[in-house]
From TrEMBL:
It is found in: Cell membrane. It comes from Streptomyces gardneri. GO terms for cellular component: ATP-binding cassette (ABC) transporter complex. One of its GO terms (molecular function) is ATP binding. Part of an ABC transporter complex. Responsible for energy coupling to the transport system. This is ABC transporter ATP-binding protein. Belongs to the ABC transporter superfamily. Residues 12-247 form the ABC transporter domain. InterPro entries: AAA+_ATPase, ABC_transporter-like_ATP-bd, ABC_transporter-like_CS, ABC_transpr_CbiO/EcfA_su, Co_trans_ATP-bd, ECF_ABC_transporter_ATP-bd, P-loop_NTPase. Keywords: ATP-binding, Cell membrane, Membrane, Nucleotide-binding, Translocase, Transport. SMART domains: AAA. It holds the Pfam family ABC_tran. PANTHER family: ENERGY-COUPLING FACTOR TRANSPORTER ATP-BINDING PROTEIN ECFA1, HEAVY METAL TRANSPORTER. GO terms for biological process: cobalt ion transport.
Amino acid sequence: MTSPTTSATPVVELVKAGFAYEDGPAVLSGVDFAVAEGRAIALLGRNGSGKTTLLRLLSGGLRRGSGSLLLDGAEVTYDRKGLTRLRTTVQLVVQDPDDQLFAASVGQDVSFGPMNLGLPEEEVRLRVREALEALDIVALEDRPTHLLSYGQRKRAAIAGAVAMRPRVLIMDEPTAGLDPHGQERLLDALARLRASGTTVVMATHDVDLALRWADEAAVLSPAGLRTGPVAELLGDDALLDAARLRRPWGTSVSRLLRAHGLLAPDAPEPRTPEELDAWVAAAPLATE
Ligand SMILES: Nc1ncnc2c1ncn2[C@@H]1O[C@H](COP(=O)(O)OP(=O)(O)OP(=O)(O)O)[C@@H](O)[C@H]1O
Ligand SMILES: [Mg+2]
């Protein structure tokens, strides 16, 4: 096991997984990635490192070349039954909303998945309403998807996955292209989903977002995939260099505070300006 947090069986897990696109070199090899129930996991790595590939392997869109994909501890079979079981548990929101949205209106798009599950009409309506509310796009229900702004299309695509009520919601760079307000609203929506028990995995290039939002990080570098507590991995300079990631703002500030003897070595790091503010307010600093 690579993750220190998995005492219970992970919901979904890749074990020693390898993958190469047709006639291409290996994109991933020997990857262990366990998604434990209730976690918020940020997947980081440079362009072309294999984040999208890894997320598609986890959600069954691509079939692993070697190794195993386990769902609740049992090997996933890539037949109709196995894939249905996987896809009703794990939902992937792809990087580009235009690859996901296809129906004429937002409401039709979001209802497509639940309708396809054969759910009664009343249940479909309830789920669509719930998903639109979660993403704060109720007002867009009757709007044609092709007339929406990019950020609105992103939120509509996520609503489509949420309407499936997955246990694991996987998102490929969901905040890319969103304005700061849109990012905050998405994080609020994710917080509500997490509070209702949804496990969330997010690929992102934003180390500050990862530090603030995730409890676990998964970092792809030429050495492979490393998983662990987010503050620990994003505080590892060698790993950040290998993955070509910047050091998060909160980690830099905490180092400065520690270097000046202001923050105890074992004290938790302030990860955002708001947490720094709260720490300053509570810190026993001389303020006369
Ligand atoms: N359909 C495909 N056919 C062949 N090679 C592919 C295909 N999709 C991706 N690749 C290659 O696989 C590698 C990993 O790509 P992937 O899209 O998983 O990276 P990524 O980490 O998501 O990158 P980004 O940050 O740019 O989104 C890259 O070298 C890419 O060129
Ligand atoms: Mg990608």
